[in-house]
């Protein structure tokens, strides 16, 4: 998200698998907003909320480092299910940092959210773009997407959006050409080698990841490949013979999970990736519980995690 | 971004280290008591090395510098390590950081060329 052509605006568009009514409620009901508002690791407490033009939403954002950020938002436009306009970042000691205009529209059960942030000057827009990126601000919309999938579709999904400065075809190749995947996918210090297979619909690749201390194996089976905008594949861990197996370093990792990647051309040289993953097929209740508690976050003490770890020992 | 995924993978991949964590889950223990069950199988330096790997991964904490250092498990790190979502998120965020870098090296030479072409394509679409 960068300002275009020296503009004082930043824009972003997201599509959610939920009707506009739910998206609107997620935005405007303080109890629901508390489930996703702010970057990952943040939580909020609402003091009061008066949702109407001129009304205020007074809340505190709690940072992962324990720092509190008081916020007073003023609404300018409130058109249920259609449009919201408000300012962001004001509190008793500072004026608002920018104005936000959000337009919602529903089509075939999906909701498109177009958000525009307006700043005092192009320079401030540029600086704030960097500030928002560094603060993990873009993860807010991933959290909203996860929350909506959970409440609307009763699915626990993982979402990650990221914008890359490259043409869509080049970014698509990064996910579909083995030589490229091997370069960027493995964790730092690890190497990846695709041992056999092809990246084609209905076919799979078998790969090895490792360093001099540990090796693990996995398989990706490709479901759909629609160049250059979409791929989906099922991932699983294997042993060295290609049979399904647990990964020794990840005891609660699910056996199989489905990942889909959507590529969107935001501009000629700017491509957004939306990565979505969910557990599929059989999974033990412990895995499911681990999966859900990971999402729930704070409630689960480490004892539960340790129990699951011990089950694997 | 911290690359704690590979550290955690490494740390948890070894059965000795998992046994040490299981032992520590019973409560704080000093290093020598922790080492005892393993002394038949391996040397003290080897045990120290395992502890160092766990410590570097943030999974255990040695509470003070002394010969009989009590060790305890770091609950937060272990929770992160066993939370699938958290690990998965770190995995992809780190992968995307690398992809970003990789794309830069890939497109540096071609950038001007592609940018021109891309622009034409974009304008043609409009």
Overview of the structural elements:
The complex is a heterodimer of chains A (313) and B (126). Helix content of chain A is 26%, strand content 40%. Chain A is an alpha+beta fold. A 7-stranded antiparallel sheet of chain A has the order 1-7-6-5-4-3-2. Mean pLDDT of chain A is 85; it is low at 291-313. Chain B is built from 7 helices and 3 strands. Classes of the chains: A alpha+beta (313), B mainly alpha (126). Chains A and B meet through strand 8, helix 5, helix 6, strand 14 and helix 7 of A and helix 1, helix 2, helix 5, helix 6 and helix 7 of B.
Task: Please summarize what this structure is.
Chain A is an alpha+beta fold. Chain A has helices at 20-28, 30-33, 122-134, 139-153, 168-176, 178-184, 285-296, 302-312, and strands spanning 9-16, 43-49, 56-62, 68-79, 83-88, 98-107, 110-118, 157-164, 191-197, 204-210, 215-226, 230-238, 256-267, 270-279.
Q: Evaluate the radius of gyration of chain A.
A: 22 Å
Roughly what is the average pLDDT of chain B, rounded to an integer? Answer: 74
Biggest sheet statistics of chain A? 7 strands, antiparallel
Tell me the series of helices and strands of chain B, N- to C-terminal. Answer: HHEHHEEHHH
Specify the helix fraction band of chain B.
55-70%
Low-pLDDT stretches of chain A = 291-313
Shape by Cα distribution of chain A:
elongated
Please report the distance between the alpha carbons of the first and last residues of chain B. Answer: 39 Å
Order of helices and strands of chain A: EHHEEEEEEHHEHHEEEEEEHH
Supply the number of helical segments of chain B.
Answer: 7
Average pLDDT of chain A, rounded to a whole number, is 85
> Main β-sheet of chain B, in a few words?
3 strands, antiparallel
């Amino acid at each position: 998200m960068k300002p275009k052509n020296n503009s004082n605006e930043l824009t972003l568009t997201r599509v959610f698998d939920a009707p506009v009514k739910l998206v609107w409620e997620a935005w405007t009901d303080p109890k629901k907003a508390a489930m996703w508002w702010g970057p990952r690791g943040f939580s909020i407490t609402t003091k009061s909320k008066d949702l109407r033009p001129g009304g205020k939403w007074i809340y505190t954002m709690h940072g992962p480092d324990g720092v509190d950020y008081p916020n007073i938002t003023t609404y300018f436009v409130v058109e249920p299910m259609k449009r919201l306009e408000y300012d962001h970042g004001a509190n008793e000691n500072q004026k608002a940092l920018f104005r936000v205009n959000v337009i919602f529209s529903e089509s075939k059960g999906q909701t498109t959210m177009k958000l525009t942030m307006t700043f005092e000057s192009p320079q401030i827009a540029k600086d704030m773009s960097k500030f928002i990126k560094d603060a993990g601000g873009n993860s807010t919309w991933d959290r909203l997407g996860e929350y909506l999938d959970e409440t609307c579709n009763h699915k626990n999904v993982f979402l990650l959006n990221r914008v890359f400065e490259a043409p869509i075809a080049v970014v698509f190749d990064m996910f579909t050409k083995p030589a490229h995947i091997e370069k960027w996918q493995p964790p730092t210090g690890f190497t990846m080698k695709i041992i056999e297979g092809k990246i084609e619909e209905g076919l799979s690749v078998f790969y090895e990841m490792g360093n001099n201390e540990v090796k693990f194996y996995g398989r990706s089976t490709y479901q759909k490949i629609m160049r250059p905008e979409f791929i989906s594949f099922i991932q699983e861990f294997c042993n060295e013979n290609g049979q399904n197996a647990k990964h020794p370093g990840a005891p609660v990792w699910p056996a199989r999970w489905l990942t889909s990647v959507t590529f969107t051309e935001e501009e000629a040289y700017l491509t957004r990736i939306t990565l979505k993953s969910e557990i599929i097929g059989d999974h033990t209740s412990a895995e499911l519980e681990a999966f859900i508690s990971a999402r729930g976050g704070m409630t689960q003490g480490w004892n539960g995690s340790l129990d699951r770890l011990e089950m694997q020992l | 971004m911290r690359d704690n995924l590979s550290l955690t993978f490494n740390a948890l991949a070894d059965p000795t280290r998992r046994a040490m964590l299981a032992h520590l889950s019973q409560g704080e223990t000093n290093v020598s008591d922790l080492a005892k069950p393993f002394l038949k199988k391996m040397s003290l330096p080897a045990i120290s090395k395992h502890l160092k790997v766990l410590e570097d991964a943030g999974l255990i904490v040695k509470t003070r510098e002394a010969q009989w250092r009590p060790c305890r498990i770091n609950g937060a790190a272990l929770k992160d390590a066993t939370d699938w979502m958290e690990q998965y998120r770190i995995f992809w965020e780190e992968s995307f950081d690398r992809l970003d870098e990789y794309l830069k090296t890939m497109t540096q030479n071609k950038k001007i060329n592609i940018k021109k072409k891309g622009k034409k394509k974009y304008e043609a679409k409009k």
